[in-house]
What does this fold into?
Amino acid sequence: MVTRFAILDGCVDEPSCLGVPPYVSPYPRYIAGALEDAGAEWRYLTIGQFRSGVEIPDLEHLIIVGGALVPGKYLRGMPASTNEIARIAGQFRGKVYVAGPIARFWDRKIEVGPEEFIRQDADAFVYDLAKTGKGNDRRRTQAEWERWAELGATLIKHHPDFPIPLIAEIELMRSCVRSFMGGCSFCTDVLYGEPQFRSERSIVNEVQRMRALGLERFRLGAISCTFTYMAKGVGETETPAPNPKAWERVLKGICNPTKPKALHTDNANPAVMRAHPVETNKILNLLVEYCTPGNVLSLGMESADEAVIEANRLNATPGDVIEAIRMINKAGRARGDNGMPLLLPGLNFVTGLDGESKDTFRKNMEFLEKVVEEGLLLRRINIREVASWRRDFRPRHRVEARRFKQKVRERIDRRMLMDIVPTGTVMGEVYLERVIGNVTFGRHIGTYPLLVGIPDRLPIDRFVDAIVASHGERSVTALEHPIRINRISMRALSEIPGIGRRRAASIVRARPFRDERELLDRISDSEDATSFLKGNVGFS
It folds into this structure.
C-alpha cells in the first residue's frame, strides 16, 4: 500500500530563509521531493488556503512546516501561529508531524499531544517513514539534498500563487562559516552544524526545472553571507575568501538562455567583504550583470556599539559595515529598467542584545547619519528586538529602542527613499496585491520590495507601471502610469505635486482634455505639476 502524506505549509521566516507569500521556502519542496523519491503520494496546501476554507486531505499522515523566527509585517499572508498548528494537529485523524524552525526551536509553545516534532531534516524523516514505516530524525545526506531539491521542484505548481507572484527561495548552504567559533550569540543559523554547500550543478538544475514549469522569479538565499558560497578557508577563518568563479558558473547557468523575471540575493557579511575587496568586487559586478534591478544585500550590522559587538561575537565592526556599504553603492546604484537601482545594501539592527546601554542607540544613530553625510544609499533599515533560541535574553531598553526606531523612520528612511526613487520615477511592473480602503497596494516581486500605494481602488492581481508622487517613511505614493488624465479620480489627481484638492477639482470640471498642450495650459501656473505631468499623461 502506498503511503499518503498531506503537506501543510505554515510558512517560515528565518534570518536566512524566506517562506511567507509570495515566497515559497525550500522546506515543503524538499519534503515533496523526498516523498517522490520514496514512491509515496502527497498533497500540498498553504496555511492561507486552509484559512480560506480548503480542507486538509484526509490521508494517513500530515506534516506541518512552519516557524517565524524573524517576524515581520506581511502584506500577502501571515505565518501559522502556534495556536493554529495545535488546533489543526488536534483535529487531524491521522498521524501529525511538526517540522521546520518551529519544531527545532519553539516546540515548547505547542501542545499537540503525542505527535512528533522533527528537529532535524523533515525530508529525511518522511523518506524513511515512507520507505520503511519508521521515520528517523536525522540529517539528509548531500546526495539526498541535491536529489530532493530537484524532484521537489514540481511542488510549485500546487502553490496558490503559481506562477505569479510566486518567488522561490533557493537554498545555497546551511549553517554559517562562523559556526566553528559559535557565531553571533542570538543566531539560529549556527545550530545547523558545520557549513554545507549545495553544488553549483544542483542549484542550476533546480532553478532550470522550475523555469521549465513556468516559474520566473527566484531568490538565491538561505545563506548567512552571499560572499561565502563555496568560499576558500571555511572552518579555518571567520572571513574566508569569496569564490567569484563559482558565482559566475551559478549565475550563467541560471540565466541560460535568458535572465529570469526576478533574480535576487540574500545576506552579506561586511567583514568578509572588507577582508577580500578584489573577490568581493568581482562578485558584486556579477550580481549587477546577471541579477535583476531592485536587488538587496542585507548587511548584518546588528549594532554600532563596540561593547555590544564584543559581548555578542557580532561579525562586523562599524568600519567594516561602512566600507561594505560604499562597495555596494559603487557597484550597484545605477537605475535599472524597472526604476529601481540595480543593487543596494540593506542594514539590520537588533536591539536587546547583551552589553546594550542607552548610549548604544546614540552610536547607532551617529553611524546612520554618517551614511547620509556620505551620500550613500540604503534600500531598507530593519530594526527588530532580539528573538532567540536563548532563553536568557532580557531586553532592558525598550523605550530607547522605540525612540531610536522612530528617529530612523523620520530622519533617515524617507530621505533614503527620496534618493532611491525620486518624485517622477516610473516604477515598472508593480504587482497590485491588495485594496485597503481607497488605496491599492502593490510592489515589485523580489527581495524587500518597496511598498507602493496608489490612492484609488484598482483591480488587483495584475502588473502596472507606477509613477512616484510622494514619499513616506517606508513606502511611496504613486499613480498608475501613464496617468489617464480624463479618467483618474479626483483623490488620486490631488496627490500630484503642485495640484492639491482645489486644482484637482478644477481639472476634473475641465475634462476631457484632448492633448498634453491643453492640459499644461490649464496648470501653467504650477511648475511642479507641469514638470510631473509632462510626457507622463495619456488621453484615452
Notes: The CA atoms of residues 288 and 342 lie 6 Å apart. The chain has a mean pLDDT of 93. Residues 426-538 form one domain. The chain has three domains: 4-132, 169-197+211-216+224-420, 426-538.
